[in-house]
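[Meeting: bench + compute handoff]

Bench side (C.D.) handed over the final construct sequence. Compute side (W.E.) agreed to return the predicted structure before the next meeting so the bench team could plan truncations. Sequence as handed over:
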Amino acid sequence: MAVLPLGGFGIISIAKIRSALLTSVSRTNFAAAKRAGETIEAAVHDTIVNSRIIIENNGFEDQEPYDREWTLQLMLKSFPQISSMTVTNASGRPLLKVTREDTYTPDEVENKQHKKTDFHTLRSKQRVRSISRDSHGFLILPVDLFFVNPLARDRSFALTLEVNMNRLLENISDQHMLNAEYLYVLDEQGEIVLYPDKSVTLAREKAAYNPLAGLFVQGKKVPITLARHRNRDNTPVVSNACVTGQPRLLVVVEQTVSKAMASADFI
């Protein structure tokens, strides 16, 4: 009886097992990135919705200037992720601005050349603007909430929230998602805005080493499939990413190749 060599069969089987393992890792990491992205979107959405509810339920439209200031100050205490709020009339003139450090009158707001809020269409309740950096380097998401009185347009107003995305992102406490090494978040310029090592965020490093980040910055479609590359420490890694809607961010879950393939090493 002839004996057939099984070496080739064994190699093929191990290759299939490794491929299946990487597929499983990819699905797990993408699911983790997607959940984190949904958490970010939900946090922004809740901030917007809850702010509108407070303004509408407290009769803000009919309040005196002092009472309006007090209402906004209380809101700042309730929403640590909001750095400032500005009230603007239908003509785009600022009426009041409250920050965590001070309160500004209309003349003070204009003298400081704060950007005016253009009053939007009557059919829109809100407008989420593009993320930008403030003078301190914080990532700010401006959101305009429009409160329109169709019977008396002069009583209509807008409330602009400046959402500090750095503070909001820091509330995502579960950074070690499932079996992943770590999770990090990039803005549209590819700068890292959330990372386990905060010094990376403060240095505003870019994840140029990640091909998924390159596609994101270029405005191209980011695949849900796994990418293999080297990380900032030149360690071989695998990563998956998910793009959020509002605001547009890239959530990346990364894992070292050695950890991802640990199970296959016993074969």
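W.E. noted at the follow-up: The first strand starts at residue 82 and ends at 89. C.D. will use this when planning the next construct.
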